[in-house]
């Protein structure tokens, strides 16, 4: 009887291991088939870019992480944590999910990955078969019925385009083409640049619920500055519906999602914009999303000169490089849109804008010679600490 019990246990363990391996492998297999539909970073639309904020936000830790690790439950005990890393949306995805048991955590991770995959298929304009790409090709004036997801996303990005006065512009496609950001870079002639700037903005988008139409032939929507946030927002919604999930973190190309139903806050390091491997400040944050933009990490070389890859849609030129700008917001799509738009505004205008918009927190790291100045919104006072010498903190009061 004891021999039979040992054999049965071996079979059960083997089958469980095989099933767990299949759960982990499924998203990788799906990603290989869908990879052609996804783009590069959230700013420059370069296929070589691994993420708009790679290196800007360093690994996220729970406050008191050492104690939490020491108290981690044994395998298969309640409170299991599952960690996964895979390639998605043209960059890397790292997620950590805590749930009542391992099966619940694995199932929740599958839901989150599936939501992100669906967003990539819906939004990528690197191919012709996504819903957004098809809308970009629709005849002028012809109404189309959008999916509920895309309709909600376009309504949200239009809102932030209006709120930022065009500093964030999802219709930056003509400028991306003019500067050749998907073809290695070029300097457009002035007349072409003026035409591209005039084509920007969402004046040519008619959106009424799920019905949308292009009212201008030159309207070209570009998902680069908001696609990752849209995908992460969909992943958060999937986690909300997943039973048994208590906490989760997702890092998609540097944009972070902090998800929980209570518990300790997270400690989020932010990197030096000049040396992306060195954390210079750390934020203590609750649930929400953190997105960072900066021009020092990626760019294009045109006529022997390196230019930043974040375009100012109002001027039609690369935005000035002052350092980096980090946004915290409750919603990932909001954080993604605003890390772009507020960077374009510049640090002081961005902080002043944030003061008039409750629920948005900002950290602007401004290079001052050999030192850094960290300008922060009042809501982060007492929740930010410097990690190295040569960083000065200043709470922005307007």
Mean model confidence by pLDDT: 84
**Helix/strand structural class:** alpha+beta
Report how far apart the termini are: 78 Å
Secondary-structure element series? HEHEEHHEHHHEEHEEEEEEEEEEHHEEEE
Helix content: 25-40%
Radius of gyration based on Cα positions: 22 Å
Percentage of residues in strands: 25-35%
Question: Taking strands numbered 1, 2, ... along the chain, how are they ordered across the largest sheet?
Answer: 2-3-7-8-11-16-17-18-20
Number of strands: 20
Cα shape: globular
Biggest beta sheet summary: 9 strands, mixed
Structural notes for this entry:
With 398 residues, this protein is an alpha+beta fold. Helices cover 34% and strands 26% of the residues. It contains ten helices and 20 strands. The chain has helices at 2-34, 65-70, 102-123, 131-136, 148-163, 173-178, 190-199, 227-241, 332-345, 347-355; strands at 61-62, 80-88, 91-99, 144-145, 205-208, 211-214, 245-252, 255-260, 266-271, 279-285, 288-294, 299-302, 305-308, 311-312, 317-318, 323-329, 361-368, 371-376, 384-386, 391-395. The strands form five sheets. Strands 2-3-7-8-11-16-17-18-20 form a nine-stranded mixed β-sheet. Helix 1 runs parallel beside helix 3 (102-123). The longest helix has 33 residues, at 2-34. The radius of gyration is 22 Å and the shape is globular. The model is unreliable at 1-16, 27-57 and 62-77 (pLDDT under 50).
